[in-house]
Amino acid sequence: MRQLWVWMLLMALAFVNDRCHCCLQEERSGLLEIKAWFGHASDGSYELQGWDKEHFNCCNWSRVECDNITNRVIKLDLSYVNYDDQKDLYLNASLFLPFKELEILDLSFNQLVGGLKNQGSLRSILFSLHRK
C-alpha cells in the first residue's frame, strides 16, 4: 500500500512540474498586447497568428524564446511583422515593460519611425536590455 502512495505522489509531482513549464501570465498578456498593437497599427499581425490566448504556453510560440529555468521571455523576434505595410509606425515602447528578463529584441524591418509620447521610451527599453 505504501508503494502505491509513493507512486501516486510521484505522479502528482510530475503533473505539477509539467504544468509549471509555461510562460508567466503577465508576459503572455504582454505578448497578446503586442500582437493586438501590430494588428491595429498595420496589417502585419498575421505574422503573429500563432500567438493565441487559447495556447497557454507562450514559450512555444513562434518568435518567442524563454529561459529554461525561469520561464521568462528572453528573446522576441518581431522583425518583418510590418514589412509589407507601407505605413510608418510609432512604437509604444511600454508594450515591452512586462518582460523583465528580455535580452534580445529584434524590431528590424517594421517601418518604425519613432515612439509615442508618454508611452515609454525605446531608449529606456534598450538601455534595460543592455545593462545586464
Automatic annotation (TrEMBL):
Origin: domain of life: Eukaryota
Keywords annotated in UniProt: Glycoprotein, Leucine-rich repeat, Membrane, Receptor, Repeat, Signal, Transmembrane, Transmembrane helix
Localization per record: Membrane
All copies of domain Leucine-rich repeat-containing N-terminal plant-type, residue ranges: 25-67
Membrane topology: Single-pass type I membrane protein
A GO cellular component entry from the record: membrane
SUPFAM superfamilies in the cross-refs: L domain-like
Membrane spanning stretches: none
Signal peptide range: 1-22
Name this protein carries in UniProt: DI-GLUCOSE BINDING PROTEIN WITH LEUCINE-RICH REPEAT DOMAIN-CONTAINING PROTEIN
Record lineage: Eukaryota, Viridiplantae, Streptophyta, Embryophyta, Tracheophyta
